[in-house]
Structures are given as C-alpha cells and as structure tokens.
Specification:
The structure holds 4 protein chains of 4 kinds.
Chain A: H1 6-14, E1 32-38, H2 42-55, E2 60-63, E3 79-80, H3 87-107, E4 118-122, H4 125-140, E5 146-148, H5 150-156, E6 172-176, E7 180-181, H6 184-197, E8 201-203, E9 208-214, E10 217-223, E11 226-235, H7 241-245, E12 254-264, E13 274-277, E14 282-286, E15 292-296, H8 310-323, E16 331-343, E17 349-352, E18 358-362, H9 372-385, H10 399-402
Parallel strand pairs in A: 1-2, 1-11, 2-8, 4-13, 11-18
Antiparallel strand pairs in A: 3-7, 4-6, 5-6, 9-10, 10-11, 12-15, 12-16, 14-15, 17-18
Helix pairs in contact in A: 2-6, 2-9, 3-9
Chain B: E1 11-13, E2 19-25, H1 29-40, E3 50-53, E4 56-62, E5 65-70, H2 75-86, E6 90-94, E7 100-105, H3 109-114, E8 131-136, E9 139-147, E10 150-155, H4 160-177
Antiparallel strand pairs in B: 1-7, 2-5, 2-6, 3-4, 4-5, 7-10, 8-9, 9-10
Helix pairs in contact in B: 1-2
Chain D: E1 3-6, E2 10-13, E3 18-22, H1 33-41, E4 49-55, E5 63-69, E6 75-80
Antiparallel strand pairs in D: 1-2, 3-4, 4-5, 5-6
The chains are: A alpha/beta, B alpha+beta, C alpha+beta, D mainly beta.
C-alpha cells in the first residue's frame, strides 16, 4: 500500500499528481472465500480489516450492492462518543473510542477524528442528577466525564443561550472531553484501502440476492455477479438487515425507521464542541468545512424511503435556535435521511444466528457511526472464533426472547417510543 | 366598513364558562340515538358535525362520542337527562372545566387558523355545523364552526394560555399587515 | 476597454427611483428593481469575492440563484446574514453589504497564497497528511477551520419573526415564466383553485430576458393581464417565494421572503413566511440553467454565462463589457451577441463548437452577416486578474488565436431544472445530443412544463404550460407568440476543453475550486462512483449545490469511464432547492415558545406565593414555598417536617386521571392494572401498578370505585399522556367489544392534597357535613357550593386526603383548605418536600425507580401481582431473565456516618471496583435526621445489612451506606389510622 | 409528510397522527409466550406495502388500519380498525 504523507503530497505536486495509485482494487469475485461480509459500509469494511489484521484471515470478500460507504456511513452526523449509562454500551463504545484515537495512523488515512468534546446540556436539577448518574457510571468504568460550570460554558460557547427566558434554561453540562466528530466518508475509504492492501476483496456493484444453505448450514450467497461460496457469512447491512436476513428465513427484532439531519451553509468558526441536551432532543456541531450540522429525533414510523418529513426538520431547527439563537439567520443548505435499523431495546445486535455459519451485525438504531471500529473488531472476533467476544456477548439476537434486554433510555420495545 | 372589505378582520373573545358533559354509546346505537334526540330536542350531529339542540351545543368528538356544552344552570339536569336516555347502551361523564373555549369572531378566522396549523380551515366545505380536531403550535385543539363569521376553539386549560397567546399575536400581525 | 457600464436607457428598472447602498464600505447608487449584482456591475465593480479553497478572485457569473461565486454578507446585528448571492438580493435604501472569505481585504487577500501552493493541495489532500494522532490533528484543524467557512457567522439573536401557514389548492404552479403563466391561466380557466409561486421579485421569468409578442401584445402587458386574470379568479400569487422542497403526497414547502437580507420588515415584523401547501396537482415550470464550459481561467472576473449577459442588458440596462468573445454550442448565445452589438459593444469573435457544415438557423445567419462567427471553434484560455479580463486565446480553424476582450459570454447548453421533480420521486430521460436530462416518469402528481421539460422555443413552451395544466385545456386556446421570438436552441453538447487548455485552471465547481484535473485525479485513485467523486472532490457540495457544475462533472466522469452519462448515474436531489433560512423553518416554535408551557389551573394562586418552580414534562409545578430567606433545601425540610408533625397542603391537579364507566369497567381495569381491582367495594380505593406489554412497570397510581359501574384511575403526571394513549389502545383495539367509556378527566378534576396528623381536622373543618373517610375510602361533599370528591389516599405516609373539585371551581376550595391548615400551624408544601416524604416511605415514582427497565419483581411488588394474571404484561413477564440472579433489585440505603448520599451515585463494594448498583433518590429522615436513599442493587433483596460505598466521581462526593429495606418511616403503617 | 384519509375526518396531515405498530404486532393479553415473542419482538419489516395501525391522535382520537408502501409511501387503504382486513 503506497504510504500517504506530506512527502507523498510534495512528490505528487512536483510530478503533476502522476504518482498516486488506486486506493483499492476493483477485483472480480472469486468462487469461494473463507468469510463473506454482506455490506460495504464502515462496519463491514472494518470487520474485513480486523479479520485480516488481527486474526490473519485474508481470504475475505466484502460485497457492496452499490458504492462503499453509501449507506448509513455516508449519511450520519459523524459524532463519536462513549457517554452512555448502561455498562454493556459504554464498554463497547469506549473500546471503539480508543480505536478511533489510533485509526488515522493505523490506516494511514486521515479520518480527521477531532476530539473537541461531546457534552450533554442539563436544563433542570433532575436533568443534572440524570447526567451525574451517567457521568458517575462512565467514570466507574474508567471513561472521561466531567461537569462544565456555567462560566466554562459561557467562555467555550459564547453563542449558547444561557439566559433564563429560554423555554428550558441551561443550568449545567456533562462533558466527555475525548468525544468529538470524524469525517464519515474517510472511515469507509480508509478501512477499504487498508483491508484491500491485506488481500481482502472489496467488491462493489455486487448485490446479494440469496443466502445458500445446505442442511441448515450456510454455504455461500447468490449475487448479481453470480454465486460465491463461503464457510461463514456475516450480514452487516444496517438499515436493511431485515431484507437480507429474510433470505435465510430469519425474522429479526428490527424495524427500519428514518433519521434526518441537515447542515447550514458554511461559516467561519461558531460552535466549537458537539452539543447534545438532556431535555431538548437535538444536537449541534460544526464541520471542518464550516457547516453547522444539526439533527434530532427520528421520524417515528417505518420507512425505507430515505425521505424525511419536513415538520421534523422544522422542529429540530426550532430546538437548535433555542440553544443557539444566532443560528436563526443561517440558511439550511442540505438535508438528508438515513434508514435506521431500530432494535427493540435501542441496542445493537452483534453475534450468531440460528442458522449455522450465518452471523448478524445490525440494530444500530441511530448510533452506529461511533461504534464503527469496535463493531468491526468484535464482529471479526465472532466471525473468526464462531462465538462472540465479551464486549459483544450481551448484544445477542435471542435477548428479546430471554428478556435480557439492554435499554439505555428505558423506553421499552416500541421503536417509535425511543 | 363591511367585513368583506377586510377579509382578515378577526377578534378573540373568552366567553363565560359553561358546563361540559361527555356521553358515549356502546350498544343499541339507533334506539339510543332516538331516545337522546327526543330528550335533547333534535337529532344528534353526525361524524365531524355539531349542532344546537335546545339550549345546549352538541359536538361530535370521537366514534360514538359527543360533547355537550350547556349553561352552568342546566348542567346537572342535562347530565341526568343524558344518563336516563342512555340507559344501559352508554354512559355520560361530567367534563366541566376539562376544556377552555375561545370564540374567534370576524371573517378572518379561517386565515387565522391556517397560521401554524396543518388543517384546511379555508376550505368552503368547513362550514357552520362542522367540527374538526387538529394540532396547532404543539397544542391539541378542536374547532366548532358556529357561523360564517364565528368559530369556537377548545383546548385543555393547561394549554390555553400559550395557545390563545399564540392566536392573539397572530391576529395582531394580521391587523398590522393590512 | 470600459468593462461593465449602465446604459443611458433601457432595462425594466425604475430609473425614477434612485437607491443608495453600501458594498465593502463604499456607497453606490442603483435603481428600483436592481439586484445587488446588477447595481454593482452598473457602477463598474468587477471583483465580487474570493473562492473557498484557493481564494481566487471571482466576479459574478450568473444573474439568478445558480450564482456560485458572488456571495456577500448583508445587514447588521440581529438582521446580519452571511452567504447571500448578490444576484438574489434586490437592493433597498440603506442596504449594508460586504464581500466574504478574504483577509485583510477583497483586493488584497492573504488567502490567495493557497493558489501558490495549489499543486501540493489537490482534491482530497487532507486525507493523505496531518497524521500523528488526534492531539496533533486538533492543532492542524484549528488553522483549517479559520481558513474554511465563507461568511462570518451571525452573533446576535434574530431581530425579526417568522410564520408558518397551511394552504391547500387544486393546482400549485412553480415558476411564472411563459410556461408557468400559461399553466396558471389554463388551470384557472378550468375552475381550479390556483397558487402561483415565483422566486423572483417580479413575474415573467425568461420573458424578462427576452421580451416577446404574445397573443399580439408585448410580453410585459401579457404578464400584467395574466396577473389580473388569476387574481380575479381567486388565485393566490406569491412573489419572492421559492418552492424549497417537494415532500410526500404533493406537499410543497414555499418560502416567501417578505424582506431582502438585512432589511427591516413591515409593521407585522415578519421577515419570511413558510407556506405548507398541500396541492392536488403541481406544475413545475422551473426553467433551465445555462451550463458553463471548460477552458483555462474560466473562473476569472469578466467570464459570464451568455444568458446572464443578456439579462443584465435587457432587464437591468447594464452592458457587462465593451468587447466580447462568445463561446457556445447552441443558437441562444447568438441572441446575446446581437444584443451586445445593438448596445454598442464590439464582438471579437463568436466561437461555435458545432460543425461548420450544419444547417444554420435564421438567427445564426443574421449574426453571420454582421459578426465574426467561427464554427468548430472553442476558447482555450481567458487571461485576466482581480481587475477583470485582459484577453483570451481561442482555437479557430485549428490555430491558436489571441483575442482582445473584456467580457467572455459562455454557453455550454441548458440543463432543465429537475430538482423538484426528482424530490417528488421521478425518473429522468437523457438526450445525448443536447447533453441534458429532462423529467420522465413521475411518482406523485407533479407535471413539468416549458424549458424544465426540455421544450425548445417560446411557442412550444407556452403550449406545454397551457395544455399540461388541466385536462380540459384546448391546445388551440393556448397563448401564441410572434415567429421571430420562437428561437430553438439546437444544442450540440461539447464537453471537451481545448487540448491546449491547462486542466489545473479549468474549473468545474467554481465555489469549492474543483478543477477538471481534480476530477481526473479522483478517478485515477479509484473514486469512480459519482457519489465517491462528489464526496472526494467536494464537487457540487457548495452553497449552489452543483447547479452549474454537476452535469459538467458527470460528463467528465463518463468520459473517464468510457460509458454514457446516464449509466454513470446521478447524485440524489434532496431538499432544499435553494438554501432556506433556519428561522423560517422554526417560525415561532423556538426560544421561549419552543414547547408549550402547560399551566396548572391554580398557577396564579401559586405564583402569588412566589414558589420555586419545577419543570415536569411540559408542566410547571411548585417545588417549594420558601419563607423569609430560606433556600430550597431549608424550605423543603421545614415543609416535610410540618407534614410529619402538623399538616401540609399541596396541589396534585396535574396527576393523570381517567373516569371509566359502564358494566365492563372492572373487566377493562383488570386488563390495565396488574393488581386485583375487580372486587373493590363502592367507596373504596387501592394502590395499583400498570405494566408495559414487555412486563416492565410503566406507571403506578390508585383505583377508586365511585359508583357500582364507575371507577376513577389515577396515574403519574409524567406518564399521563402515555397512559391516555395506552388506555385508548386497549379500549379501541384490544377490547373493542367491552361496554366501557374511558374519559380523560385529567383537567376536569383539580385536586388539593392535605397530609399530616391534623389533616383530618382540616377536612372536617372545610367539609363539616361529610364524615371524614377512613384510609383508602372516599366520600362526596360540598365546599361552599362546590361539589367535591374526597379520597383518603396517602403518598407522604401520613394520614392524608385528596379533595377533588371541577378544575374551573378549585380556587375557593384551595383557599379554604390552605386557610384552615395555616390556622392550626400547617403550611403549603411542594414537590421537593413530597420527594423527601415519599423516599422515607419507599414509594416508587416514574422517572426514578420506575425507569422502564425494572420488572414488578425487581421493585419488590411480586406479592401485589394478580395471581390469575390476564393483565397486559403478564405473559412477557414469564421470560427467564426476570428470575435469574444478578437482577438489580430495589433496596434502601442508610448513610453510616450521616453524610449526604449523592443522588444518582454508583454503589460499590469497595473503591476502584465496578458498580453493583446505583442510587435513584436521596433524602433524609425528616424527624430523626440522617440521610437515606432508595436505589437498585444486584440481588439487593438478599443483601440487607451489607456495608457499601455510594460514590459520585463527577461531584467528588462519597458516602458509606448500609443496605436496608426500602422503607424508613412507619413501617407498620400506623400513621394512616385515626 | 403523509396525507392520511381518516375514515371519520377525511384526508389529514401526518402531524395529527401517531404510528402505533404493524397490524401483525397487536398482542392480546391471553396470547401464549411464543406467540407474543413472535408478534411483539420480531417483524416482517417489509420494504413495500404492509398493514399498519395508526391513531388519529389530534383528530377524532380514532384508530385506523393503513395499507402503506414503506418505500414509495403510497397509501392504498385507510380503514376503521374493527373492519375486516382485506387480504
């Protein structure tokens, strides 16, 4: 793999950019692989990378029906954090955060992981107690969490509305200094390039049409580019998990919903952290290009349309302006919607399925981007060993039958109550 | 100046409090409705309809469920009348105070109700004797069209300060924009 | 050469109305109807801004909303807004505007250094460097963020307000060019309710650039008459109104701008209004964008789209240059050449890339007769600087030829505006010759007409609008135009730059500085899907969203791939069509009105006591009533002590309350409540819990049998709306056959709670004729003429009563009770005291112990569950996990050394170990002192007496605690008996 | 924003409605545990037409069955909940 560096840029500049090689090959599918991963998003590509790098399994194919990183990896709000209350979740996301901190250098591809701090605003004493509980749970697990005083908020975010005429006056905030944002496309491209260099076949425009089984055991898949054999097949298509699992006659505890987000026109620096709120379900951050990135609640009904309802965007605009009144005169430049795999306790599913040799990684609701490296790492372990790692063992497919659910918000089984 | 000259003319008025009753029919619908029509002095308004029956105003609100607005003096008697007429085919419940009423006068009420709303208040089919439940400014609201120049709006008391305030500001904007 | 000047006459501007405005500190003069761009051009201004990455000097390229480069800041304070297109700002007296993204000044911008190092910062360079870990990246990023972004951010809250309106119509017409007006007239004639939306300040669209004779009269008269006809038929005409988004079921968002950027609004204070239009049918008459062409230096000030040059001439009376070169692949640009010549400019050359042997239209022949026309010719490079063009070099008959000019009018053909058609769910058809996509199939009721549908020439455009707008329209009734106004485009698309042109300086996306060389590099590196190309180079991701660049970029990708353009695919079209002010999206639902503030009926009464308020969902409830200079904690302790020793009064009106009447009321309640309720005697009540379908506790409350077939069910304030939906679901979906009426009486009943050893004396005082009901009994009464219902229920653990009355008559009831209580040493108490009291009794609460994760068993309520089952949640509760060891079970904690137990803290067996539980609520023993708490602990039921640590690292507090049963006061329940 | 034709109130904006669950996920209290798990905790989750339960929360507070395509959002039927569900 050609090493990227300032030097390589210098050489490129001097030779008219002739020295750059392809970032990943465009191989034709082989007849058989040890492992096939369905889905060329960040999670799928990370899984392939760690399978080859950590477990030395190189005869791997990632099958992407269109262009890699085109699913939810390409349409999220790029926030990275591990400030969750439930241990199973903050342990998984903290492991992910540690991988994020080494990712650019490990992949030799700058994913622009920017640790500017991800914080939750508190708008009442009961908010502050909930945030303290979340912070204490994190610190008990060795994760960074600290309160910010009103003065720190005023200095760090001068445009935040700290007045008491706000509908939900701000009284404090819990910050995770190591939280932040990353460039989502770069994650898919970085993992694809690194996995390809280790021998993984990243195959685009190759849609899986069927999952072959013999005697209850997976033997390969049917695709738009012909049949491909495999000992183990890992589904990794969050947003469409139900569709692909149905090819193996599996009904999943997943309903496909939709989460919208939008960006403003780019302006000079205005918001220097990732801001979330305990009472106002919206979040605000500013990208490196200067666009303010805003999002909020999901659309709360099943859809694959990737077309959001306008009144949701209007509601989130009101929430963001309530937090930062100066946003009012900025203009919305672009809005988009991702199809979210809503599971019935808000937590992901990474593990085995009743079909031997068939594995599932999905159910990420609207929180999958931050988990990309840990999802890939634990799924690679599960695919390599045939059984989950300690970090993803709690996120079993059968937990809804047993009742051992992991419900961060306590909202219960209905995705639209989440 | 005739009202027509100012299509957006609108004024808000908080009428005197009244008694509010709710009754629901769960069986013997035709017979029960006939008994109630006789007791109240006229046929019950149909789906999404409202009507004056004697001194009371009846408003259809849900499947097989009506609200009865009557004067404080007639409240108890009307409740007894409803309970008797319903017999075992339904029941009546006192809801007095559960909804606060605002009367919006002037031809501009249709324009006013489009502000911050999602319901087609300007449709000619939304005529006197029609009711509609919808949402405005996050608040649940029910309209009862009294006449071409008058509509009643009901919302729970807890929502009323903010919602009626929202309509006051909107009415002022309509006046200033003229 | 003079550069741009205002002509002595001509244009549709109002020369009688002079308008003065400021740009970059200098005051200029324009006329009514001028855009900021036309007014600045009229004053000879050539340099408008700097590009995003290389900070190259940029002039104005277009005349409409597709302008990529001339972006300005406008207004000040609460009306300041960045990134407005100078072509889409109509000047008004006092307009303040500045150029953007340059330091220290537009003329001398240090950012220009980037273009010196441009070879070393090609597309995607930032993925290939800045390594060394996140700490280092934060330093690099700080510099990058300063350089990035365009305008300065606003720093003040908005000075104006915005409004939403719902609108419904049979036919919504978007665009008021010839096709749009014809369509509106046709639909209106057919009796439809019509709304016409036009983003410009005036109706007419392309007729403002190319006036014509329609139905025998001058087009501006035809336009005026069309307006009258539509208004007379009751149609609604909205100018300065953009159709920003096309959503499901033909819902279109129209953004009406009542003010220009920075302008003070009218008396109603509205800056903009958002129309949510639900249309029966939507006619898209959105016209077409002219495409630029690839040549070296095609981004220099003085290079303009040919149609824009004609617009500035015909509409604004501004001649953009005195000596022009025209480079085109179609006939339309000949109209610009002839118009310029007619306005006294000289034409250096018309470079027509089409072959010489083609059949030439009358228009082309007319130009050939008087102007230097060269076929098979194209521009190689433009030469110039921030001060404008110095000349150009062209490929004529295969020879490189130098040309002298101060204006280059460019036409790379026309792309129909298909954005709204695609947002509505539609497909596109590709025409290889003209190199353009036009609307094909539709999924909703959208119909595209005129140039947007690829209609060629004015008469085809008029006919397309008229006939497609309504089924009844007769073609022969369509408006017609004079023949010489009917100019066909005859586009033969030519994507190839001249071989001699340097691709590093041939720009595709002007605002994001994406060059043809960048696209080729991305392709070579493997970013070959159109989405990868776009995201790697940032093509089409600027504020113009690729309106002039997408197709040029796509064509280049198709050439690299060796495939036809449509097979390479298109990026998705998403709202908004053009950027929309966030303020108009929010309208009034922000700031103090973000959400409703639900006020209890006794709000004013409480406000008079100046309590500390507490938000509970949308509600605001009194938290404490401080006396003198008590703080919250002191007031709450005093209040709770008074309840324990004398009597307290509190407002419980906001609780969820439901009236269930009918023969099957008891059966229905046995579905909802997990405890036994069916056998309740009339006049009696009982505590109950309600489960979710997955078996977890959803809410708790009390059930009272007020009559044989009538029950009152109470639930928490926080869970009231969810409980109302749950009851409706069970009543109308699960058990529609039951004879029961379920009425939400939350705001019918208001309620006053009286609690304490002397509570019964207060009740006896205010309701003398009513026997004081014993615990969990009820009785009706009359308090000064107000009908009351008194329930003997206790949340505080003291003997207590809740006196219900209709909410519009509660004020005198509250007053009488408060007076009676205060006379015997009682006081008002709020939620904080209530919390202290309920913690002592171990009562659970939604949002505390009822956290959506706890089962009835975890909360120690197994014994209350109805053995017969049949309630919602019973089945799911059989799942194995609820009986396994290690469950978090509810316990009490008592501080060993008296220090406060931090609420929400983690419970550990020893320092530095993983938590085995957490504290949900912390309080104190009101009478004997000492801090106590409720919480969860793994296998808590079997760990009473164990010593643990309650640790809160975020608040650096810690407390040694002992595990107890979750009740600390009157365990035997003696206090309830008189 | 969908336009849903409420059987009582006529076509109304989606802002007045609440999606409750797929029709197939309606569970009666007397359901066996395996049936409950199948209905409540798994979904067909089709990318196409399916029957859903909605409530006209802010309109007539009634419940309706909607036959809706989860990709195109085309609604082919909206019926009162107790009506026979056509196949």
């Amino acid at each position: 793999m050609q090493r990227y560096s300032a030097l390589s840029l210098l050489r490129g500049g001097l030779n008219g950019q002739k020295s750059w090689q392809r970032a990943w090959r465009d191989p034709a599918p082989k007849s058989h692989y040890d492992v096939i991963i369905i889905g060329g998003g960040g999670h799928g590509l990370a899984t392939a990378y760690y399978l080859s790098k950590v477990h030395g399994i190189r005869n791997v194919a990632v099958l992407e029906r269109s262009w890699i990183g085109g699913g939810n990896t390409g349409r999220n709000t790029t926030i990275v954090r591990s400030n969750y209350r439930q241990p199973a979740l903050h342990n998984l996301f903290e492991f992910s955060l540690k991988l994020w901190e080494g990712m650019s250098d490990d992949l030799n591809y700058n994913v622009m992981f920017s640790q500017r701090g991800a914080m939750f605003l508190g708008h009442s004493d009961s908010d502050m107690i909930r945030l303290a509980e979340r912070g204490d749970a994190m610190r008990a697990a060795g994760i960074d969490a600290e309160f910010m005083t009103m003065d720190q908020l005023r200095k760090k975010l001068p445009l935040l509305d700290l007045s008491d005429k706000a509908r939900y006056p701000i009284v404090g905030a819990l910050n995770q200094p190591r939280g932040g944002t990353a460039r989502h496309d770069a994650v898919a491209w970085g993992y694809a390039r690194a996995a390809d260099a280790l021998g993984v076949d990243v195959i685009q425009n190759c849609e899986v049409l069927g999952i072959d089984r013999v005697g209850g055991r997976v033997t390969g898949v049917q695709t738009t580019r012909g049949p491909i054999g495999a000992d183990r097949v890992g589904i990794c298509v969050a947003g469409n998990s139900g569709q692909v699992a149905a090819m193996a006659d599996l009904r999943l505890p997943i309903e496909s919903h939709l989460l919208q987000a939008f960006v403003s026109e780019p302006v000079k620096p205005m918001v220097d952290m990732v801001i979330m709120s305990q009472s106002i379900h919206a979040y605000v951050s500013q990208s490196d290009k200067g666009e303010i990135v805003m999002g909020g609640d999901p659309d709360l009904y099943p859809t694959y349309s990737q077309r959001g309802r306008p009144d949701r965007i209007e509601g989130v605009a009101g929430q963001c302006i309530a937090l930062f009144p100066a946003l009012s005169r900025l203009r919305m430049l672009r809005s988009w919607a991702g199809t979210t795999d809503m599971s019935f306790d808000g937590s992901p599913i990474i593990g085995t399925t009743p079909v031997e040799g068939l594995y599932l990684n999905g159910g990420w609701c609207y929180g999958g981007f931050k988990a990309t490296p840990a999802s890939g790492w634990t799924y690679a372990h599960t695919l390599a060993k045939g059984e989950p790692h300690a970090l993803n063992a709690p996120f079993s497919l059968d937990r809804f039958e047993t009742g051992a659910t992991i419900d961060e918000t306590g909202a219960g089984p209905m995705p639209h109550h989440r | 100046m005739t009202n027509a000259a100012h299509p957006d003319l609108v004024s808000l008025q908080t009428p005197e409090p009244s008694r509010l009753l709710r009754f629901e029919i769960w069986s013997g619908h035709k017979a029960a409705q006939a008994r109630l029509a006789k007791a109240l002095g006229g046929p019950l308004p149909g789906i999404c309809k409202s009507a004056d029956l004697g001194a009371a105003r009846l408003i259809w609100v849900e499947q097989n469920t009506w609200l009865v607005r009557t004067s404080p003096a007639d409240g108890d008697e009307t409740l007894a009348t409803l309970t008797k007429a319903l017999g075992k085919d339904g029941s009546a419940t006192d809801m007095s105070g559960a909804l606060r009423r605002l009367r919006i006068n002037g031809p501009g009420w249709r324009t006013l109700l489009t502000i911050g709303g999602v319901f087609d208040a300007e449709s000619p089919t939304f005529a006197p004797g029609c009711m509609a439940g919808t949402i405005v400014a996050h608040s649940p609201v029910r309209y009862d069209v009294i006449s071409e120049d008058c509509v009643d709006a009901y919302t729970p008391p807890s929502y009323s300060p903010d919602l009626f305030g929202f309509w006051c500001e909107a009415a002022e904007r309509l006046a200033k924009a003229r | 050469m003079s550069g741009p000047i205002r002509l002595a006459d001509g244009g549709l501007i109002d020369r009688s109305r002079a308008v003065s405005f400021v740009f970059d500190g200098q005051t200029y003069q324009g006329y009514g109807g001028d855009s900021l761009a036309s007014a600045l051009l009229a004053n000879g201004v050539v340099l408008f801004g700097r590009s995003f990455k290389y900070h190259r000097p940029r002039g104005v390229m277009a005349a409409g909303i597709e302008e990529p480069s001339a972006l300005v800041q406008a207004g000040s304070g609460g009306r300041y807004e960045p990134n407005s297109r100078a072509t889409d700002v109509f000047i008004y007296d006092g307009l303040q505007s500045q150029s953007q993204n340059r330091w220290p000044s537009l003329g001398f911008d240090l950012g220009g250094l980037n273009s010196l190092i441009s070879p070393f910062i090609p597309a995607g360079f930032y993925y290939k460097t800045f390594f060394g870990g996140p700490k280092l990246w934060l330093l690099y990023e700080h510099l990058i963020r300063q350089m990035a972004g365009l305008g300065m951010p606003p720093t003040k809250a908005d000075a104006d307000i915005y409004e939403h309106r719902a609108a419904f119509c049979d036919v919504l017409v978007v665009g008021s060019g010839p096709a749009g007006l014809a369509a509106a007239l046709s639909a209106s004639a057919a009796g439809s309710r019509v709304i016409l939306a036009e983003q410009d300040e005036r109706l007419g669209g392309s007729l403002l650039t190319d006036p014509a004779t329609i139905d025998g009269q001058a087009s501006d008269l035809w336009i005026a008459k069309a307006r009258e006809t539509l208004m007379a038929a009751g149609g609604r005409i909205l100018t300065r109104t953009t159709a920003a988004g096309y959503y499901d079921h033909d819902l279109v968002n129209l953004v009406e701008r009542l003010t220009e950027p920075g302008q003070t609004p009218g008396a109603d204070g509205l800056a903009q209004r958002l129309w949510r239009v639900r249309a029966g049918k939507v006619i898209l008459a959105t016209g077409a964008f002219e495409r630029p062409r690839l040549f070296e230096g095609n981004d220099l000030p003085g290079v303009m789209l040919s149609g824009a040059v004609r617009t500035y001439l015909r509409r604004y009376g501004v001649r953009a240059g005195s000596r022009a070169v025209i480079t085109t692949d179609n006939d339309d640009a000949y109209r610009t050449a002839l118009a310029l010549a007619e306005a006294g400019a000289s034409i250096a050359a018309i470079l027509d890339s089409r072959p010489a042997d083609g059949v030439h239209s009358a228009l082309v022949q007319k130009a050939m007769a008087q102007l230097p026309v060269h076929f098979g010719a194209k521009l190689i490079a433009a030469k110039g600087s921030a001060k404008g063009l110095k000349g150009a070099s062209a490929l004529i008959e295969g020879k490189v030829t130098a040309l002298d000019c101060d204006l280059i009018a460019v036409s790379g053909g026309f792309s129909p505006v298909v954005h709204l058609h695609m947002q509505a769910g539609g497909t596109l058809a590709w025409d290889e010759i003209s190199g353009s996509f036009s609307p094909d199939q539709t999924r909703q009721n959208q119909t595209t007409v005129g140039a947007a549908a690829g209609a060629d020439g004015l008469s085809a455009t008029l006919l397309s609008g008229w006939s497609k707008a309504s089924a009844k329209a007769k073609a022969k009734a369509a408006p017609t135009c004079a023949s010489d106004d009917d100019v066909a485009l005859n586009i033969i698309a030519d994507w190839e730059p001249a071989p001699q042109a340097s691709l590093k300086k041939a720009f595709v996306d002007y605002q994001n500085d994406v060059t043809a060389a960048d696209l080729d590099l991305a392709w070579r590196e493997g970013y070959r899907s159109v989405e990868h190309l776009k995201r790697y180079t940032t093509l089409g991701m600027a504020t113009d969203q690729g309106k002039t660049s997408n197709l040029v970029g796509l064509a280049r990708l198709a050439k690299s791939e060796g495939r036809p353009v449509p097979s390479v695919g298109l990026t998705t079209f998403r709202p908004p069509y053009t950027p929309v002010t966030l303020g108009v999206l929010a309208a009034e639902a922000t700031g103090a009105h973000l959400d409703p503030r639900r006020r209890p009926v006794l709000y004013q009464t409480h406000a008079a006591e100046q309590p500390i308020w507490q938000p509970v969902g949308y509600w605001h409830r009194p938290r404490a009533y401080p006396m003198g200079n008590e703080n919250l904690h002191q007031a709450a302790h005093r209040e709770s002590l008074t309840v324990r020793t004398k009597v307290g009064v509190t407002d419980v009106s906001t609780l969820g309350k439901f009236d269930l009447s009918g023969p099957d009321a008891a059966t229905f309640l046995e579905l909802i409540c997990a405890t036994t309720v069916g056998k309740l005697a009339v006049g009696r009540g009982r505590y109950t819990i309600m489960l979710r379908e997955d078996g977890m506790v959803m809410d708790d409350g009390t059930v009272w049998r007020t009559e044989e077939n009538r029950f009152l069910l109470t639930s928490s304030t926080g869970g009231a709306d969810r409980m109302a939906a749950h009851l409706s679901y069970v009543r109308k979906v699960i058990a529609p056959h039951l004879k029961v009426a379920v009425a939400n009486v939350q705001e019918h009943w208001a309620a006053v709670a009286v609690a304490g050893p002397l509570a019964k004396d207060v009740v006896a005082a205010v309701l003398p004729k009513m026997a004081v009901p014993r615990h969990m009994s009820l009785d009706v009464g009359d308090l000064a003429g107000v009908p009351t219902l008194t329930l003997a229920a206790s949340y505080s653990g003291e003997r207590a009563f809740e006196i219900y009355a209709p909410s519009d008559q509660i004020a005198p009831v509250w007053a009488a009770i408060a007076k009676a209580a205060r006379e015997i040493g009682g006081c008002l108490y709020g939620l904080e005291a209530l919390e202290i009291l309920r913690i002592e009794k171990g009562h659970i609460v939604v949002g505390g112990e009822i956290d959506g994760r706890a089962s009835p068993h975890d909360l120690g309520l197994s014994k209350m569950l109805r053995p017969a089952g049949g309630y919602i949640g019973a089945t799911a509760l059989q799942r194995p996990a609820f009986a396994e060891p290690g469950r978090l079970q509810m316990v009490g904690f008592e501080a060993v050394d008296g220090s406060a137990i931090p609420e929400g803290s983690m419970v550990l067996t020893a320092p530095k170990t993983l938590p085995v539980g957490h504290v949900t609520a912390a309080g104190l023993n009101v009478i004997k002192g000492g801090s106590i708490a409720l919480g969860f602990l793994r296998d808590g039921f079997s760990r009473t007496g164990e010593s643990l640590i309650a640790w809160s690292p975020t608040r650096n507090q810690t407390a040694e605690v002992k595990v107890t049963a979750p009740v600390f006061y009157d365990v035997a329940g003696v206090q309830y008996r008189d | 924003m969908l336009l849903i034709a409420c059987p009582n109130c006529g076509p109304r904006a989606q802002a007045e409605f609440t999606f409750e669950r797929p029709l197939a996920s309606i569970v009666t209290p007397t359901e066996t545990l395996p049936d409950l798990i199948h209905k409540l905790f798994t979904r067909e989750n089709p990318r196409g037409p399916s029957w859903e339960l909605w409530r006209h929360t802010y309109g007539c507070a009634g419940w309706l069955k909607v036959h809706r395509d989860t990709h195109s959002h085309q609604i082919s039927a909206a019926l009162p909940v107790d009506m026979e569900t056509p196949s």
